[in-house]
Amino acid sequence: MSKIERALNRARSERGNFPVPAPTEIGRSTKGTALVPEHSEEASVQAITSMNASESEFFTAGDLAQRGIIHPERVDDRTVQVFRELRTKIIQQSHGRNGVILITSINPGDGSSFIAQNLAAAFAFDAGKTALLVDCNIRNPSIAEQMADASAPGLTDYLFDPDLGVEQIIQPVGIARLRAIAAGGRRATGAEYFTSQKMRQLIESLRVRYKERFIVLDGPPMSDVANIRILSELCDYVMVVARHGRATVSQIENGLSVINDKKLLGVIFNDEPRIPWGK
User: Hey, how many other C-beta atoms are within 10 angstroms of the C-beta on 278?
Assistant: First the structure.
């Protein structure tokens, strides 16, 4: 059985081929306070409480719907159920430990940013978890312009500027227990930054910063093979997004060939048609 057959079978058997809407934008942020490292379970509880208290304003269910972001109150929404199931499967896969998850797509425009943003939101909606969304799609970023301060420094700024602290690039996004790091100022190439020791140290520091936090990397498409290889080495898990009817079997096969089997969680088929009940 080929790698793509194994991946597709696993995705389907675990309901990984989730039908989800087309990609959209993440909501604008509100200002909050910087994060503080924590190591004990008691500190985790205190940190979650502190994060909630630091928010001055949260988006309503209607606000999030307009931005294409799920809301836990919409329990009958199929998209909400999909991301809850996805979150549960990842927590089970990680045996309850936090982790770093790379979301990438077969082709540009397949909806990986939509998946990454909503997966991060799903983790944050769990009262016992927090989430951090990191925009690693340097050539086509999607987070900075949605923040209250679009000029705030981001990932490449941190990697470029030795005087910039990690707490200066983590921003709130109007959702309780969710924070984000924008891509930062556009540079010539992203690979030079992702291969740096500082990038590796950043991921490791974010991994241990909060024990209950899941870190979601919104990565570039798999056509950017060099960066995908690097980012997949830095993370614990990889999820691949393929737009239904657009990504070919050979494209998926080629994309999955650069991912370690042990890290591959599955393939999400975006915009898959739904079969009406009774048909």
Answer: 4
The span from the CA of 63 to the CA of 61, in Å, is: 5
CA distance 239 to 103: 5
Domains and CATH numbers, the chain: 3-270 (3.40.50.300)
- Per-residue model confidence as pLDDT tens digits over 103-136: 999 999 999 999 999 999 999 999 899 999 999 9
The burial of 172, by beta-carbon neighbours within 10 Å (0-12 exposed, 13-18 middle, 19 or more buried), is given as buried
| Threshold 0.90, pTM exceeds | no
Residue 214's DSSP bridge partners are: 131
Cα→Cα distances 135→45, 181, 270, Å = 26, 6, 20
Contact 48, 177 (CB under 8 A): yes
Per-residue model confidence as pLDDT tens digits over 228-271: 999 999 999 999 999 988 888 999 999 999 999 999 999 999 87
State the Cα–Cα distance between residues 153 and 245, nearest whole angstrom: 38
181 three-state secondary structure: strand
- Report the distance separating Cα 105 and Cα 120, nearest Å: 16
Our CA dihedral for 228, 233, 238, 241, rounded to 10 degrees, sits at 0
> 202-232 as b/e, with b when 16 or more CB fall inside 10 Å?
bbeebbebbbbbbbbbbbbbbebeebbebbb
Are 121 and 29 in contact by the 8 Å Cβ rule? The answer is no
Read off the tokens for 265. 């969680």
The residue written with tokens 């696993």 in the block is: 10
Displacement of CA 97 from its chain's centroid (Å)? 16
Q: What is the DSSP letter of 182?
A: -
Rounded-to-integer distance, Cα 2 and Cα 13, Å: 16
Pick left, alpha or beta for residue 273 (phi over 0 → left; psi -120 to 50 → alpha; otherwise beta). beta
